[in-house]
């Protein structure tokens, strides 16, 4: 029987995080009606041809448009897709998106930022893990580190493991890594910061 994703997907409650420069970043779940405006905000990254900003951003934009058209992304059902957006004073500063392989396996897609040096990606990443494990209730999150910075900041420091699937790769050719709910419960007190909204 086909999964009814409308019964599984839940809204992200939101989080308010103080960035290193003292500004407040509000992280909220994105609605489908916001897809075009979020993609427009990401366009500057397409001309930033360093450290995979252009490639990762073009993938996010494609994925959000596929979501808009209710089409699957890399075999993830359309109904399982979500995106969290970080804003400072209403301006979009970062985006992180994902989907689910099935109701118990999350498949993280991408994270990118529109401002450098403020740890925005490092703050958005645990928000996405919070959404997967604590809101949607998955057992495992699968993810791939696409860039060297992402691997160093978002995977190694979180204890993602490469071992279970040495022969499985993401569409970027990066090896698939996993985090489990018990792992998340062990590390989240030190990683998930800010004030929960809602
Ligand atoms: C990976 C990513 C999300 C991390 O975002 P972040 O946590 O906000 O990271 P920052 O911009 O604060 O800093 C990242 C690194 O860039 C470098 N950096 C920081 N400020 C910089 C600046 N003004 N100019 C150039 N490089 C800078 C530093 O090496 C820094 O590492 P550090 O924080 O350990 O010192 C972001 O770099 C990004 O969007 N990259 C492109 C897409 C990507 O790789 N996504 C992740 C795939 S796994």
Q: How would you characterize the overall build of this protein?
A:
With 198 residues, the chain is of the alpha+beta class. The protein has a single domain (13-190), classed as Gcn5-related N-acetyltransferase (GNAT) (Aminopeptidase, 3-Layer(aba) Sandwich). 30% of the residues lie in helices and 25% in strands. The chain is built from five helices and eight strands, in the order ββααβββαβαβαβ. It has helices spanning 35-42, 53-68, 120-136, 148-155, 181-191, and strands at residues 15-18, 24-29, 82-88, 91-102, 105-113, 140-144, 176-180, 195-196. The protein has an eight-stranded mixed β-sheet, with helices on both faces. α1 (35-42) packs antiparallel against α2 and α3 crosses α5. The protein starts with 14 loop residues before the first strand and ends with a strand. The model has no long low-confidence stretch (mean pLDDT 93). The protein binds coenzyme A. Coenzyme A (COA) binds next to α2, β5, α3 and α4.
């Amino acid at each position: 029987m086909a999964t009814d994703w409308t019964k599984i997907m839940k809204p992200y409650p939101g989080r308010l995080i103080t960035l290193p420069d003292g500004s407040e970043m509000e992280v909220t779940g994105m609605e489908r009606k916001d897809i075009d405006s979020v993609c427009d905000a990401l366009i500057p990254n397409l001309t930033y041809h360093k450290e995979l900003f252009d490639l990762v951003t073009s993938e996010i934009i494609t994925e959000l448009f596929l979501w808009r058209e209710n089409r699957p992304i890399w075999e993830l059902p359309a109904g399982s897709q979500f995106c969290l957006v970080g804003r400072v004073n209403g301006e979009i500063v970062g985006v992180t998106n994902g989907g689910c392989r099935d109701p118990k396996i999350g498949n993280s897609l991408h994270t990118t930022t529109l401002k450098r040096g403020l740890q925005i990606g490092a703050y958005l990443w645990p928000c996405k893990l919070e959404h997967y494990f604590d809101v949607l209730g998955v057992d495992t999150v699968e993810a791939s580190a696409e860039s060297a910075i992402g691997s160093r900041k978002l995977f190694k420091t979180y204890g993602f493991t490469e071992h279970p699937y040495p022969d499985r790769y993401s569409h970027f050719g990066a090896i698939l890594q996993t985090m489990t709910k018990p792992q998340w419960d062990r590390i989240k007190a030190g990683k998930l910061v800010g004030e929960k909204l809602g």
